[in-house]
Amino acid sequence: MLNLSRGIAFLLFLCLYSSVSAVNNQTVVINEISWMGTAISASDEWIELYNNTQRSITLDSWRLAAQDGTPNISLSGVIPANGFYLLERTNDETVPNISADKIYTGALGNSGEYLILYDNSNNVVDEIDCSAGWVNGDNSTKQTMEKIFTGWQTSENPNGTPKFQNSAGITIKSDTGQAVVETQESSPEPIIEQIETIPIGSSEGAGSHQNKKYPNGIIFNEILPSPEGPDETNEWIELFNRNTFEADISGWMISDTIGKTTPYVFPEGAKIESKNFFVIYRPTTKIVLNNDGDGLRLLNPDGDMVDETVYGKAVLNQSYSLLGKKWDWSTALTPGKENSKGGMVKEEYKNETTTPTNELAAVVEQISTPSKPLSFPALLMSFIIAFLSGIIILSIKKLQQKKNLLQ
């Protein structure tokens, strides 16, 4: 019965997990920014939002604000399902022939901005940190900064694509600083399960690593989502280098799969020795490990996923650890050391494998395999036998009562 209960509990959790994931992942993203204005006027700035979901979203009491306070835009109205929302500065003449959804005031600095999108509960829905300078876009040609799967690009044409799908052409800067224009297949608009990587225009982007090969064998090994004490300071993530050589992880990224967190990029010179560990804490990564379930992806500088792990509801002060080939909760916290099972783990929080798909497969196998005790067919047969036995016993009792009355 325990195996069946665990199976049913997991299936219910999987449905809940999918629902929570859809809510917590980015619903609306900052999709395109004309921070440089137009050839007519530098004040003709605009910002485009995109709705990732299959439903319209009311933006009343939402807010798009720069960290320095300008602009600070109160949003209103509705952004349609898989649709756009255009914010034009000063007046509706900023983008000719396209109506603005919101007119705002306040200039975007040409030296960069840190923009944050808040919902009506003041939760951060999306953000872009360009406080050190815009990573893409061209002030001289008036090409805008467009969002793509791997970060950001410079629009193919001047003035960008307001209220339309982002362009296919990108401009990246080589190591020499010269502009190199490339084209690629047209990418669809951002989707909920997107993987964000470092912007292409930066020095750590794909353009500067395109001829470099990266090792496999760098894996997530242990994470602590719900520590004793403040989560903000005590959460940590541990990597392990399975290789027999030292691995340079400069420019590698850790991306959070639930909620909006800017991926953490390992700095230049970050290395993991052969068969060794690398532990990094939340104050450094800024990655929030959600206690209700979350996941992490490890990506190399080309944006290729090297490893990922997903966990369910976190257990207080227990780490989610790779024990052999399976992930499980452990009372033994071993940052920088080989993992250990530790004490017993609560049954309702145990996870058998590393991904939801494999977890479901494991549960189905556990329920349906006849060779295992209390398999589903056996339980079903036991239930039927018990039910029929109850009916037979009840019938016998009623017959016995009638017989007694007749005597």
What do you see in this structure?
By secondary structure, the protein is of the alpha+beta class. The protein has three domains: 26-192, Sandwich (Immunoglobulin-like); 218-366, Sandwich (Immunoglobulin-like); 378-407. 18% of the residues lie in helices and 29% in strands. The protein contains five helices and 25 strands. Strands 8-7-2-1-11-12 form a six-stranded mixed beta sheet, with no helix packed on it. Helix 1 packs antiparallel against helix 4. The longest helix is centred in the last third of the chain and has 31 residues, at 376-406. The model is unreliable at 11-25, 170-209 and 344-374 (pLDDT under 50).
Short description:
The protein has five helices and 25 strands.
The sequence of SSEs as H and E is HEEEEEEEEEEEEEEEHEEEEEEHEEEEHH
Give the overall pLDDT as a whole number: 77
* Order of neighbouring strands in the sheet with most strands: 8-7-2-1-11-12
Helix content: 10-25%
Largest sheet, strands/sense/barrel:
6 strands, mixed
CATH-defined architecture of the largest domain: Sandwich
Measured between the Cα atoms of the first and last residue, the distance is 45 Å
* Total strand segments: 25
